[in-house]
């Protein structure tokens, strides 16, 4: 709502989001930060999708070859079949062929990614293709970027995407248009269905349309890339989860006192491993670098050492609670109580043994 001259810069146009919308760098950064939090919460990344030769192939009607005409390609495209793959764009005098597997690709990718269309084509063309790919408007909404939105001539850039560059994956058949973002790019094998497409790229062979053939869907380019995207998504969030978990008890160095059965190897115990997964360093012996002594009895030598040396004395359930809540819990909420009788001691030892064995 601010006047434009009150912002830090004149702003960048985001007309594809809303006509006339301009955003300053401060607001762009805020929106990207907010979007990143939402994406990570939903366990999604960003996927930027090119159109021509990546998801589709199009041709002008006047570029249709004689062989294509003889095979009745225009008649096939004129059939009103929403589940088909060959369409006529009447107002643009064009035919468009959807790449095999594209519908399943978009459906499965939408579960892992927030998706954008980004094309060097005109806005009207991009919107028409988006309607074919997403007739119910569930995948892209307004996230359709065309040549009129680009901030640099003949170049695409993530500056037009209201999402963090660090979580963006790009699918495009043309590398040189992504000069600033090659590390985010997965280069696609080009889809040449029409004869004009083959001619454009210098292939003196019959096109798929002229051969009355097509890419195979189940193991074609999009199916192969979908498997790659699934692996990227899994690895990314495995690393994120591991990193976030390791921050929970980062900076804590623990020593355990009579928490495990005397006959066991401490490093093999469940609670020891849990503490390490949370980022803590576990030790078998006390020294000046120890921050916490984990015990169920204040009467042990290590527990007394903790009190004497002003270290934190805490019950094993502190580790469990921190693990469940993904946040370091207040140590004072998990005190090691003085034993009133042998029954109390037996109960605490049993609880610690359960924790050591992974029973919660």
Note down, in words, how this protein is organized.
The protein has 2 domains: 229 residues, HAD superfamily/HAD-like (Rossmann fold, 3-Layer(aba) Sandwich); 93 residues, Rossmann fold, CATH 3.40.50. The chain has 360 residues and is of the alpha/beta class. Helix 4 runs parallel beside helix 8. The two termini are 52 Å apart. The radius of gyration is 30 Å and the shape is elongated. The strands form 4 sheets. A 5-stranded parallel beta sheet has the order 8-7-3-9-10. The chain has a 4-stranded parallel beta sheet with strand order 12-11-13-14, with helices on both faces.
What are the main properties of this structure?
five-stranded parallel β-sheet, 2 domains, alpha/beta, RNA binding, metal ion binding, elongated, Rossmann fold, RNA polymerase II CTD heptapeptide repeat phosphatase activity, single chain, 12 helices, 360 residues, RNA-binding, four-stranded parallel β-sheet, RNA polymerase II C-terminal domain phosphatase-like
